[in-house]
Design goal:
The complex is a heterodimer. Chain A is α/β, with parallel strands linked by helices. Chain A is built from 17 helices and eight strands. Helices cover 42% and strands 11% of the residues of chain A. Chain B is elongated and about 50 Å long. In chain B, α2 packs across α3. A four-stranded mixed β-sheet of chain B has the order 2-1-3-4, with helices on one face. The chains are: A alpha/beta, B alpha+beta. The structure holds iron/sulfur cluster and FE2/S2 (inorganic) cluster (FES).
Amino acid sequence: MPGETPLTGRIRPDRPPLDAVGYEQAGGYQALRKALGSLTPAEVTQQVRSSTLRGRGGAGFATGQKWSFVPMGEDAPRPRYLVVNADEMEPGTFKDRLLLEGDPHQMVEGAIIAAYAVQASVAYIFLRWAYRVAARRLEKAIAEAYERGYLGRNILGSGYDLDMHLHVSAGRYMCGEETGLLNALEGKRANPRSKPPYPQTSGLWGKPTVVNNVETLCCVPHIVNNGADWFKGLSRTPNGGTKLYGASGRVRRPGLWELPMGTPIRELLEEHAGGMREGYRFRGLLPGGASTDFLGEQHLDVAMDFDTVQKVGSRMGTGTMIILDDRSCPVGMTRNLTHFFAQESCGWCTPCWGGLRWCEQMLSEMEEGRGREEYLDRLAAHAGMLGPGHTYCALAPGAMEPLQSALTLFREDFERHIRERRCPWRSP
Amino acid sequence: MLSETERQAIDAEIPHYARKQAVCIEALKVVQRHRGWVSDEALHDVAGHLEMTVDELDAVATFYNLIFREPVGRHIILICDSVSCWLMGYGALRERLSERLGVEMGQTTADGRFTLLPIVCLGACDHAPAIMVDEDLHRDVAPDHLDAILERYE
Ligand code: SF4
Ligand code: FES
């Protein structure tokens, strides 16, 4: 039913998260009991498939399908691994922090069920360093789960074994890309790997590996408990479930809300974020993190889900929106975003590391009043050259999404910078 | 030489991974926790301990932005320079910080108390601008709050 908030229902901002006992009393670990006690791994995967759950890390790949690519059976390679991507580093994104800090057992339970579904024997939680509170709470939750027999040998008498370890990263955006993350876990530079082979067949140390985002895994216990149809019914669109939506920027109430998937952008912005702050007007937004295309006023009635946002030329991404107001410079914002990608480029392929620096340079000159007429075309050309298919991984195409959409949506502002040889938003 | 405590902390991680080399990032963090940064000598010792070449380990150490290969101050200030913080007043905050500490980004104060570094989005964008001092996150930071915040870190 719309209106339910399974993922955040147990989270209270004014108190520490539930410990294992509290979590059990609130219905926790029931799904794990059910899965291990009465469902085969294939049945769990099938249930998640039918639920239409799609990855909440940004790419939106069907979760059950991802699991089903893992080779199973007697002759399948072992060990297999489950990796939780808790590296939340997409600028403007702060949703997994809430889930990790607010209800760590929920994520641990989801990860154990996922691991069971692909018969993994080791699970790693790949956590970014900056999430110190989450690190402490996860460590505690994992220890409690071992104590109570949810991890370790012969879990709940089922004969299934699983170990879980927390890996705290030393920081780099590339670790969010799943193959980069695997290299980081192996103690290497987080350069991406070529695909295929996909991690599901050849991942960590060449063994079958599934990488799932935190929010995705948090959905899993609820699907197992309540069924696929219930999960689909939470949504307002064919993409099932609820979604953690967020907003930052000059809105009245920046924050996070768990709402039915497919909630329209306008409703998020006006009802939940409270509209723009006094004295600020809306100019545009990035729907789901730094690597999504800008949307404008004309897109506000779009439903926020994977397919609908894609249809209007952007991506839902992480679902945490960044709002641009009329007192901030669109060129400056684009420069900030491009700087981020240029800095985080892993340097593996030339178009990306060279091209992004060049883009950043042109945008900086523009902002400082030294932009030249031809920069607009040159930037647009980069948007094509660094687009999908020309680089080794998705970082460069991701960087081009805000850039190329800004060039269209805020064309006049870019032109003014060049024509007037100054940034109109800067005091002289 | 790695201290006994450092060695123990590193060795405790080894059984969690299929290969020894996987703990190298953790090992560098262990060293850094005890010494503040990773010197050439420390790098050499960790590499030896994990049966890696020094170059192999340095390639890793220089890739991750929270491994410090140069000495740092007693406290690290990480200021988020990503998009939401940029929109919400990062510029003014950064200016005040630099002015107050008398250092630019990447530098350490003359008394060795603070090192100022930029960091990507801290996942606190609904409370931008955000900074971290050591392990503490500070949210909704206005330039005027800085004195009260920094006072806590001797
Ligand atoms: S696109 Fe950029 S980040 Fe990706 S592999 Fe190439 S250089 Fe590295
Ligand atoms: S952009 Fe600064 S915390 Fe996210």
